[in-house]
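Form P-L/3: holo structure prediction, ligand S-adenosyl-L-homocysteine.
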Amino acid sequence: MKYYIKTFGCQMNEHDSEIIAGILESAGYQPAADLAAADVVVVNTCCIRESAENKIRGYIGNLKACKYQKPGVILAAVGCMMQQKTIDGLLKRQGRHLDIVLGTYQQHRLPEYIARVLAGEGPIVDISEDNQDFPDELPSRLSSKYSAQVNIIYGCNNFCSYCIVPHVRGRERSRDFAAIMSELHSLAEVGVKEIMLLGQNVNSYGKDWRRQGQADAPDFAELLQAASQVEGIERIRYMSSHPRDFSPQLVDVISDLPKVRDYYHLPLQSGCDRILQAMNRGYSTADYQAILARIREKTPQAAVTTDLIVGFPGETEADFQQTLDFVAGCRFDAAYTFLYSPRSGTPAATMAEQVPLAVKKERLQRLVTLQNSLSLEHNQAYLGQKVQVLVEGLSKNNPDFYTGRTASNKIVIFEGRPEQIGQLVDLTITGAKTWHLEAF
Ligand code: SAH
Ligand code: SF4
Ligand code: F3S
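OUTPUT (holo model):
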């Protein structure tokens, strides 16, 4: 039997798909070259914004064709979108041909459910929340030989008022420290050079244990320090961190860790204090500024990127102007910018004063224009500089060239050789664009 997995959504989902692939392979399945060759198709879904859901509805709708061509094919949808309370509508319309629907708590049981469908049962929907951890002690199928993702905490307790994640991924559960460390060591042994520590809020690592009275439970800083000791791992990244839990003291710890310190991703969401409060973010622009100041003081070479939401309910032109001014002052290396998207079941979705789409789009455009000019300035500062790049492979946009990343997570396009893939190479930057650097 052959499987094919299509993944939507964030890095957490990418990694979940690696684990699902690992689970299927240990149950005897093999990867299919493409959709048409598959006996089992798994769609791993996301519901962070309406645009994601629309894409997935379309994809799932199109899978009907697979059933016509190959009536025995098993179609499964798993992940965040399936865990939503409102999923019935999809199942009645675009998803009637799905054989298996599993939420985020049950997806590891896929082989068992496939067997049941093969035995004649179906369709099966299991979105129960029996809070079992996703068993990632199982071998996951690495999608890269030198870069790997490692879960450190599941779920989210923050309940930002716009966000669906806590509703579909449950409460925070930290993963056992020894299990994480042993995974890091095994990854280093097989030649992995870069790791990404994953969680919706990595800074909360260990807090659940401390709340339960385990005063000496490890925290995120200790985890970073221990991970830094793993020989062979050259770069450590993490995703995502929350400014509420990111103290200037944590910056001090990170500044002493050369494998970690050159890149920060710290989602700001808004540069207006009133909106931050309505978003339930738990920090002010002044708090954010204090963290950023410490980063710039300790590691002026570090790149800092952020996430921003435009058009949160009640955001006035003056509020938005505050965001523009704050972003200009922060001088981010890059920003991932999003139009606010109402998510059913979240407080923001029913707030009065929803911002019209046209206004949101116009604001987004102004924000992107500002950020692009800042990004370009940052990148131009690299001209003539020597950088160390971890080589990823051929550039997708320009297959005559190779692509890799600096310690500060900047993409570099250069003339490379196949044997450099997975290696650290020294390059001198000769070109700077908004989204990447060049060395050729
Ligand atoms: N846990 C991560 C974020 C995961 S979602 C964190 O807190 O950083 C990634 C980004 O999507 C968020 O940072 C936010 O900017 C954006 N996002 C989340 N919900 C959204 C919504 N309803 N509409 C638009 N953007 C949203
Ligand atoms: Fe969503 Fe906020 Fe949790 Fe991030 S921290 S996943 S934005 S609720
Ligand atoms: Fe999407 Fe779920 Fe990630 S909603 S962004 S796949 S946590």
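COMMENT: Residues 2-126 form a domain with the Rossmann fold fold (CATH 3.40.50.12160).
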